[in-house]
Amino acid sequence: MTHQTPAFQALCPIFADGIEVRLAESRAEVAAAQRIRYRVFYEEMGARPTAAMQALEMDFDDYDAVCDHLLVLTEGEVVGTYRLIRRHAAASIGRFYSAGEFDLSPFLETPGEILELGRSCVDARWRHRGTLQALWQGLAAYMVEMRIQVLFGCGSLPGTDPALLAPQLAYLRDNHLAPPELRGRALPHRDRVDFADITAAWEARRVLASLPPLLKGYLRLGGMIGDGAVIDHQFNTTDVLVVVNAADIAGRYVKRFSS
Questions:
Q1: pTM of this prediction?
Q2: 227 has pLDDT over 90
Q3: Looking at the chain, which terminus has fewer C-beta neighbours within 10 angstroms, N or C?
Q4: Chain Cα centroid distance, residue 162
């Protein structure tokens, strides 16, 4: 895990109500994040844990040992987390996490550092604006410090029935499709939803009201969507690939949350 630098710490102050944001500094803190992930993804959202995960009540995989874990803490307790995977961490595993669902080749050759986001969640007791702001503040500070150029990750829609999600997917395709140089594509061997096959009508206000807050937040910052979606039966979601120009998040959120 990368230890935060003074510059990173300067952009990550303690917020109101004693909320603090920083990178994990110990295995115990990573384990606390993994327990929150388990509660949110498996107990709340209906994901399917492995036997090992269920026994430990923790969500984990090989990436946890090589990535950075952004934490939100209050009174020393971890209440929120974001998993951050840079090029060197992905190389140590052999690929980025989302490469298991999408062809990332259109932007893997982007000059400079790129960052994959994942496993974002907040404990139900602390799921309010202050905690979410702290998490985004920390992400913006990390991107500034690590000079991130492009960030990406799987944006998840709840459920695995493409027919029920057709208006949302059609809206994303029609309004937020990434340009070819950034347009990752759903892998053909996965349980894929082809955008070309979606004919559903959509009404913008209704669709936006139904989108998960995290995905909607990315779109507000200029987030773009790859081609196609992938049904993730383990996590009970339908995933799209989200790509964001890092400057959009870093500039707006550092200014907003440090003012």
A1: 0.88
A2: yes
A3: C
A4: 21
